[in-house]
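Q: what sequence does this backbone want?
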């Protein structure tokens, strides 16, 4: 099937974009190189997408540098209006974007429609409104002086995003950067670039000036590495694995650019014996099985008080086995495929690791039996009971529909286990004890804590981690601070300054 046939088969009204977006135009890579992006439902090719190289990054950076003075000095309200128009266009194209995202990533269409597209629009709308409301301060200093601060954009920003939520991450990364007046060179993951390129098209329609945003699908080791190294890029924001994050930091040292990292996680999801079990069971399934567990904030360590562990697991296992796997474009599908065959094999390898360490597989741990799913990247919802909290499956990020079960006796042991990894991104607890909830919120070593819920996000709430989960924050006022620098201005109004060298 060619692109037109695929477009018609999945109900897309407009062409599938498959070129780089540089300086307001879709263009081929300078090298002519392409890479097939595949449908993870059956691993059939969707499109051959242009792969950016060093020359393309240079071209994009030059465009972003050229337009930066104009964009950064544009009235903030005018920048905001463009982002608000973009949010409206995203909502007007909900079905198109949802189908494209599900086709490319394996997200169930019900998730793409109800979560991915609305969250993307909401984030652009939030920062569209923020653009003319983010302000400096006046500071009380010595008599006779006026001291005030200016919040200025950092310049050309490089952004590298992963394959698990490509549509939503365009807004998390680009919306605050654009609202603050920066220009952008973004590299989406090479295996899921299609929704990012569609957003570039909608940005042009919304009135974004050429060169302000440049979208370059490409390999991490080539385009991503060069973005991190580029001497004309003032900041790099990266979401992905902790190992790659370390390489980004090393590559950024050449011009001491600002670095923002949102990395891995091994989220503890703690269920106490006084929890509402029905809510905790359903919330814990959402925490790990939504998006096939491909989320850095997934509740991948399910920690159960020993008094309720058996009852909880009976209910939780039954729920996991009932989740409907299938074609992500089918509205009845509750869990789709993992995003690539390589990642599916990696997730399944942890089932072998678990057995080698003495763990017990309570559910899943294999691809589904259905013949219709055999060619895809599917893994059944998997529940594994670890032997100890130090097992690899309790310490390493699996990044799939794979939850590690641990038990604890009391609050002290629960806190020790929860904080017993190098990661510190998301965490959650289920309890009716208000005092315990606040104590754990204070003591958990994590950037986010959910109480009697899990995996809630909002454009106004800061998102990020500590430790090996990275530094810096997405969303909210904190994100605007990440994309600006402070200038302090001193004005002598009527200060009486005696001469320091009197003559």
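A:
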């Amino acid at each position: 099937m060619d692109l037109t046939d695929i477009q018609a088969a999945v109900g897309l009204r407009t062409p599938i974009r498959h070129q780089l977006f540089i300086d307001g135009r879709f263009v081929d890579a300078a090298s002519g190189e392409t890479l097939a992006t595949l449908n993870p439902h059956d691993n059939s090719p969707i499109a051959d997408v242009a792969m950016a190289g060093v020359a393309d990054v240079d071209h994009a950076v030059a465009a972003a540098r050229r337009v930066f003075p104009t964009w950064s000095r544009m009235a903030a309200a005018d920048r905001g209006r463009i982002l608000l128009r973009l949010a409206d266009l995203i909502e007007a194209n909900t079905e198109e974007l949802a189908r494209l995202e599900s086709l490319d990533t394996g997200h169930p269409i019900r998730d793409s429609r109800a979560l991915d597209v609305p969250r993307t629009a909401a984030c652009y709308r939030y920062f569209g409104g923020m653009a003319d409301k983010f302000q400096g301060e006046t500071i009380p200093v010595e008599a006779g002086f006026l001291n005030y601060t200016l919040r200025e954009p950092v310049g050309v920003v490089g952004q590298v995003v992963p394959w698990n939520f490509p549509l939503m991450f365009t807004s998390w990364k680009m919306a605050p950067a654009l609202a603050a007046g920066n220009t952008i060179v973004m590299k989406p993951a090479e295996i899921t670039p299609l929704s990012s390129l569609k957003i570039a098209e909608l940005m042009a329609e919304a009135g974004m000036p050429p060169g302000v945003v440049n979208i370059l699908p490409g390999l991490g080791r080539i385009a991503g590495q060069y973005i991190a190294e580029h001497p004309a890029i003032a900041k790099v924001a990266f979401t992905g694995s902790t190992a790659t994050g370390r390489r980004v930091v090393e590559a950024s040292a050449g011009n001491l650019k600002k670095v923002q990292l949102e990395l891995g996680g091994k989220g503890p999801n703690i269920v106490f014996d006084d929890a509402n079990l029905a809510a905790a069971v359903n919330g814990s399934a959402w925490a790990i099985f939504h998006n096939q567990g491909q989320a850095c904030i997934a509740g991948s360590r399910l920690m159960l008080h020993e008094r309720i562990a058996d009852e909880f697991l009976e209910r939780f296992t039954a729920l996991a086995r009932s989740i409907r796997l299938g074609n992500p474009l089918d509205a009845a599908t509750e869990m789709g495929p993992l995003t690539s065959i390589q990642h599916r094999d990696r997730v399944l390898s942890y089932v072998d690791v678990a057995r080698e360490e003495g763990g017990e597989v309570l559910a899943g741990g294999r691809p589904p039996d259905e013949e219709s799913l055999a060619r895809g990247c599917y893994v059944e919802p998997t529940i594994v009971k670890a032997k100890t909290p130090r097992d690899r499956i309790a310490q390493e990020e699996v990044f799939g529909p794979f939850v590690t079960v641990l038990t604890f006796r009391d609050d002290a042991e629960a806190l020790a286990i929860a904080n017993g990894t190098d990661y510190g991104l998301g965490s959650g607890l289920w309890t009716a004890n208000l005092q315990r909830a606040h104590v754990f919120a204070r003591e958990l070593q994590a950037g986010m804590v959910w109480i009697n819920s899990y995996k809630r996000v909002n454009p106004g709430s800061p998102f990020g981690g500590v430790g090996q989960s990275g530094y810096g924050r997405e969303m909210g006022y904190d994100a605007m601070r990440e994309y600006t620098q402070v200038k302090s201005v001193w004005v002598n109004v009527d200060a009486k300054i005696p001469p320091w060298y009197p003559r």
